[in-house]
Each structure stands twice: as structure tokens, then as C-alpha cells.
Amino acid sequence: MRDQITAGFLPLLDSAILITAKERGFAEEEGIDLLLVKETSWANVRDRIAVGHFDVAHMLAPMPIAANLGLSPIPMQLAAPMALGFGGNAISVSNALWAAMAEFGAGGLDNPAAAGRALRLAIGKRRAAGGSNLRFAVVHPHSGHNFELRYWLAASGIDPERDVDIAILPPPLMPDAIAAGRIDGFCVGEPWSSVAVAAGKAHIVAVKAAIWRQSPEKVLGVGAEWAEGHADLLQRLLRALYRSAVWCGLAKNRAALADMLASDAYLAQPARLIFGALAGALETGHGVETVSDFFVPADGAATFPRQAHALWLYAQMVRWGQLDHSVANAEKARLSFRPDLYRSAIGPLGISIPDEDGSTQAGPLFDGAEFDPADLEGYIARQRGAHNRSE
Amino acid sequence: MLNGSVSLSERTGLVGTLDFLRCTISVHAQNEGMSPSSLSVLVIDENTVRAAIIEAGLREAGYERVTLVHDVSAVARRIEEVAPDVIVIDLGNPNRDMLESMFNLSRAVKRPIAMFVDRSDQASIEAAIEAGVSAYVVDGLRQERVKPILDMAISRFNAYSRMARELEEARNALEERKLIERAKGILMRSKGITEEEAYALLRRTAMNQNRKIIEIARSLALAAGLLDP
Description:
Radius of gyration of chain A: 20 Å
Number of domains of chain B: 2
Number of strands of chain A: 14
Largest sheet of chain A: 5 strands, mixed
Structural class of chain B: alpha/beta
CATH superfamily of the largest domain in chain A: Periplasmic binding protein-like II
Distance between the termini of chain B: 71 Å
Number of domains of chain A: 2
Order of helices and strands of chain B: HEHEHEHEHEHHH
Largest sheet of chain B: 5 strands, mixed
Shape of chain A: globular
Strand content of chain A: 15-25%
CATH architecture of the largest domain in chain B: 3-Layer(aba) Sandwich
Oligomer: heterodimer
CATH topology of the largest domain in chain B: D-Maltodextrin-Binding Protein, domain 2
Strand content of chain B: 5-15%
CATH class of the largest domain in chain A: Alpha Beta
Radius of gyration of chain B: 27 Å
CATH topology of the largest domain in chain A: D-Maltodextrin-Binding Protein, domain 2
Helix content of chain A: 40-55%
Strand order of the largest sheet of chain A: 2-1-3-11-4
Largest interface: A-B, 30 and 31 residues
Number of helices of chain A: 18
Strand order of the largest sheet of chain B: 2-1-3-5-4
Shape of chain B: elongated
Distance between the termini of chain A: 64 Å
């Protein structure tokens, strides 16, 4: 008898770990019958966890934090016992905006500062000509996409609240929206930038991996109550997902993984594009660029849910006015990530797991600023200053 | 009417728990004592047939201020115009995240909106999500005023799904009958047998291979298609 676990996911590159756990038998090895359900919105994922349709889900890393802080329109407590890799996102712009940025020297994907500068100058020129605000899209207000786009803009001297408009769109609709001219740019997980580029409608100008190398993106989200009541089953699931992540991270498995994800049941996009994203070899619309650590499923403890990451995400929520900072709020945010659950599940595998020394174990962001969770208040204060620096 | 006639300063009651909406003004006081039909209901559903079914149900129940929106790109303006007390949304709509963030940030929605009205009514929430519908409710509305709307939406959504399923089944059954007719014809022609013999052959093959007759018929029709000049 196998225990069934139902998991919701959105068609994105980093759903790979869940999909592989099912398709390559890692779940089965742990006696788990893993049922995967493709969803159309993060709101549905959240609601269906809330009513118990899903036991676990592929979630934006800030979603459990937002839920626990009472920012969701449906009351619930979530836990993130595992991260689902680093990176995987890109910022793309329309052909017209790319042409405008290229004039000001937007360079390679390894240089987000140059791309940001080019965007700032392009916006200045557009404004001088009487043009309206550029319109960007991200997948959710509580998402790494929203926060890294805003971080990149603000660090480049562009005020995300005033100099551009930021809309919300589901990932699979981004390519159509940019093709139809409804948006000028977006930040989204792969393969959706590659799909827009392949259609000849967009250029990739920046990647998450260069804005902040090895930074948090998705987590496994679990109802806190469910985690409590299914401790053993959750441990087995985490072990299956851990082995799955290691498999996904091996270069030799990329072709098979790309084929698997390409199927209609999952991403329903060409394997060629998915392979490129897995390999970090992105067709930008103006050449192929290799990005190191573009998407990292396992290496560098990419599945370990760092509370320092939870606090960085929380700092961004405060920065952009999603809630007010308080010691109690910060604590709720930090405790949304559950390294203790991860450790109890993965520890027995004899793998080295990072110490919870409180650091992000990642270097500084692209603008040179480093996040030290021990100085959360100082960081929040400095960000507030940086945000108002632009004019 | 809630919109227009009540100035911001007249609205009372701070709502701390929903500060994520950045809107802190409750319309609780204004809603009390109004007749059910005075509630403004906005239905957002890209499925025009289902939306019409919901609208009809609401009107029958005495709700006169019902607005349908099929195209979410126009929704912000409509929300501003109709100032809904209750918003009913199809859960399959991929733009739900956008809509939620709009309730959250847009100046179009001036009042706090939460999903479902009574957070303790888990059964209702489950029934709604099961049916594929969700309701966002202006803060301060009492449950007994909203529940009939939600219940109606749930039953209409379920009725619509049942209808759609039956239609799909009928369509499949027709397809299957046609395929079996075709397979029989192929066998009759190629083997020079009667219709009864052809059907018996299909059934025997299906039993031997432990498959369904329709699967055998499909393979046969496919193979015949490949062999056609």
C-alpha cells in the first residue's frame, strides 16, 4: 500500500523536482503515490491547499510567508520545509524596448547593471518624447519575480512605483501579452522568456542568477497542520524530492529531463527551449548566452530552506509596502521556512546540510549590497533610502 | 447605492486584519438594513454561457444589480463603475492572481475584500472550490447576506459542469459509435463478412486482448488509414 500525496504545480522549469520525483520513481521508492495537478494560478494553488485538495504544492517562496502574515485573502498557515532550487527566472523586454536599450549599451546577461542603466536612459528618452510609462508584468505580488524586478530597477535608478507600471499576469500568458504589445517587459520563470524569444517577440535582458546568484525562488509549500499530522509521510516526500533534485542537477540527465517536462501534461513547450534553460544556454534574441547557475536544482544546498532567505523576502515585502515591519512580523516570516523539518528528513541520508548560522550563504547582490539578517533593521532602513534616491 | 452617496469621511470602522488591502474603511454600517437585492454583484467568468446562467439565477433570486464581465482586461473599469459588494469568479480563470492584486492595490476597489465571508464556514469554502467558484466579499457584509449568493453560484456552477460533462459524454458516445461502424465496414470489405460477423470479430479480438471494443476499432481505423493509398 502506497500513501497518496496530491501536489499542485504551475508549468515552470522549477516544477522539475516534483515531476521528476514522480516520473523517475523517486516518490515510489519512498512508498508514495505522487499525484500531480497542473494549476492555472497561484491563487488556485493556495486555495486548494487551504481546503485540502492538495497536500503540498510548488509555491513562490514568499507565498507561505505572506499567508502566515495574514496577507492572503483566505486564512491559512503554511510551512516551507524545502526549497525547490535557485534561480530560473529572466527579465525580457519587447523588441521595441530592446532596440531603445541597445542604443544605450545594454550588454550581456552577466551585467545587470549595464542593462539597468540602458533601461533608465531609454525611459528618460521616452519621457522626454512625452511617452507613457513602460508596463512590466510579474507573476504575483508575493513573488521572487516581483522582488528581483523591483530590486534591479531601483538599483538602476528607476523607481518601480513611479517610473514604470507593474502588472500581474500568469506565466504562460506572458509571451502573448508582449507579442500583443499589452506589456513592454516581464520577469518570469523559464521557459516563458525563451518561448517569447523563440516567437521573435522579446529579448532577454537580465537573469535572476546575475541579479543575485543562488537566490531563493520556489519552495515546497505545505499546510502547517498537514505537516504536523503527517510527519513521517512528509519526511519520505522530502527525501524523494531531495533525490529527485540531485538527479535534475546532473548534466547528463538534462536531455531526458527536458523531454519529460516538454510533455503536454507538464510544460507543454518544446524540449529544445527547456533544455537550453536547464543548461543555462539562453537564446536572448540577440545571440546565445551561457549563464552560470542559471537554474540550480540541488548544488550548493539549493533545496535547503534558509531562514535568512525568508527574511530577505520579508525585507522586500516591507520595502514595497506590502506590510509594516515589526519584530513579530519578521519572526513569523522567518519561521515560515522550516529547516528543522528538512534536517529531520534529509539528515538520515548522511548528506552535509548547511548550519543555520543565519547567513544566506550567497554573496552580495549585483549592486554590491550584502544582506545580513542580523542587521535586518539596518537593511530595511537602507533600502528605504535607496528607493528614494533615484531623482 | 454604496458608491457615490457615501463619502469617505462618512464610512466608519477600521479593519486591522485586512491591512494588506491598504484600504481600511469598512462599509459595515451602510450595509445593515439594506434589502438583499440592493447588493451589487459582479460576475467574472470567461465562459459566457455559464456567466449567463449565474446571472439568471441571481436575478430570479431578486438581485437586480448584477454585472457580468467576460474580458478581464476591462475589469478594473467595471469595478470602478459598479462598486461591487460581492465578486464571483471562476476558479479556472488564469488571471485570478491579477484580479486579487488589483483588489489589493487598485484604487478602483476602495473597500477591503476578502474571500468568502465567514472564515469559519469551512464547508462552504470547500463546496465553492470543489465547484470551481470563488467569491470575494466587501468587508463588513454579514454572512447571511452573502451566503445565498455563494450557494446559488455553487449550485449553478455544479449544474453547468454536469451539463458540460453530459454533453461531452454524448459527443464521445457518438464518436465511438461512428468509429465502430467504420471498423465494421473495413472488416466487411476486406474479409467479405457480414456486419454481424464483423462485430463478433471485433468483440472476440477485444476479449482476447483484454481491451475495449472501441480501442480495437480505433487501432483498426488508424491502420486502415495508414494503408490507404
